[in-house]
UniProtKB/TrEMBL annotation:
Location(s) in or outside the cell: Endosome membrane; Golgi apparatus membrane
Name this polypeptide is given: Transmembrane 9 superfamily member
Similarity comment: family membership: Belongs to the nonaspanin (TM9SF) (TC 9.A.2) family.
Source organism of the structure: Handroanthus impetiginosus
Residue spans crossing the bilayer: 277-299, 341-368, 380-401, 413-434, 446-469, 490-512, 527-555, 599-628
GO CC entries: endosome membrane; Golgi membrane
Amino acid sequence: MEVPWRRPHAIRMCVCVTLFLLITAANSFYLPGDDPQDFLKGDLLNVKVNKLTSVKTQLPYSYYALRYCRPEKIVDSAENLGEVLRGDRIENSPYVFKMREPQMCNVVCRIVLNAKDAKEFKEKIDDAYRVNMNLDNLPLVVPYKRPNSNSLVYQHGFDVGFKGGYAGKPEEKYFINNHLTFTVKYHKDEENDAARIVGFEVKPFSVKHEGKWDDKIRLTTCDPHAKRSVTTSESPQEVEDKKEIIFTYDVEFQESEVKWASRWDTYLYMADDQTHWFSIVNSLMIVLFLSGMVAMIVMQTLYRDISKYNQLETQEEAQEETGWKLVHGDVFRPPSNSDLLCVYVGTGVQFSGMILVTMIIAALVFLSPSNRGGLMTAMLLLWVFMGLFAGYASACLYKMFKGTEWKKISLQTAFMFSGILSAVFFILNALIWGEKSSRAVPFGTMFALVLLWFGISVPLVFVGSYVGFKKPAMESPVKTNKVPRQIPEQAWYMNPVFFILIGGILPFGAVFTELYFIPTSIWLHQFYYIFGFLFLVFLILIVTCAEISIVLCYFQLCSEDYLWWWRSYLTSGSSALYLFLYAAFCFFTRLNITKPVSGILYFGYMLIGSYAFFLLTGTIGFYACFWFTRLIYSSVKID
């Protein structure tokens, strides 16, 4: 018997489409070490400003949403789709350096706050907003010493300001960081005078500048002629209505031994690496051990059962046997709501393909953190083009269930998950618009997303469904009885709900360690770039989902319960429930989100992520049980 997707021309088609995906998304990929920029002494270095971010609100804002110094003309940098969805707003700034020429107390501008400006600054200070900048595509960081250690840890951006009080006065005041001491680290070429930027750091200060403001600006608090620089915030600049604020900066250049190709190491290894790596390895070893035990038990049990069944000589002996062989006439009976199962399986194939290809590309270092938004753009494009495989998988399963309306199943596959995702996304985006955040997706980007969905993804789903439906239907290894067999009363531990919830624990445990770090990188605005280990965890997740689903499916069939179709999907898919519960636990214990809108955004995004995880793990478990049942029932003699 020939399985449709194993035919050579079908495989060739899949390979060609996959190559096309990679070529199409190539603009989002970046090879580290490619296109370094050399700077000679005196070359201009233009600092770009990015969004204001806060771990309390999760609502980014444009840098110029506050009354900061502005250049003569604000120019937006070109952004890819992923950057727009992340809320990045990269613009030029009045901060301009000259390569390897230090500057001291350079005055940027002088402003006088009005009541509205002061209120906005105070709100951002209350919400712990941080200012993000870039130089030569490197983000600005603030170095801190680790507790009980001499090593440094780097935090992205600097605080807008802080709250405090004057000595002897209980009233709390707001102060702004208006003086920045930049440090630009560079690696010099030994053969010529050119240098490459390998680090961009800052130390922010709040200082109430004093001095004369005329044709020749002369500040007494910060004077390059007297070599007097700002080193403390002992006399900070207060934020109040009608208060004058003078923005200044210093810049110094330090030669570094770090080469350009390694300059991102500072940003990618900011956490406790030893703890992180040990936890991942420990988790992998435990899961591998459990998976080996499960596989050994299953293989030994099945080998004994199949040998015993094949040695039965009479029909009477066969009828006296109990177990999974007795339900051979019902095990391949189409389940209830089979159309919905086909849709979920097809969508799961689409999501699994997207994750797998993204993991491979990222693990091979084809996606660089310097390409902001590149990962999200690649995932979005891969999701769109993987619609071809979604349609193919759902149509093949639908035809096996004797379905005839392939167009209906194509529509459902194209709109089920994407429709739910779009509805939640539009609601969340409306809330973000109400907060006037830069994360609100503009109408142009929204139109591009709709065009990708309806113009590319939906047609590809129909193409895949058409190809899949034209293939010969998969035949069951045994015939299905006309009259369904009565399922005997089951033990309490075979209860479907209990069985399903138990099955989701092990897959969730396989990714638990990474779930500790990934939310931190997302919600606390840190880099996560250990895709090699993440890919290994993903492979372990696949093995775990497959084996736990097979084991529980085997126990179910042994109890003469042949309704395995949906249960195989829900068994491993239930791990998504634990994922969502863990996200709720993190919200109340690890995060410091204060605004109700921000809480809604958090749970909205985690709901989408948990739903996608359900599709991923459920589809893996389903196909594992599908292969398993076909294998065992084609291996025994059926009279």
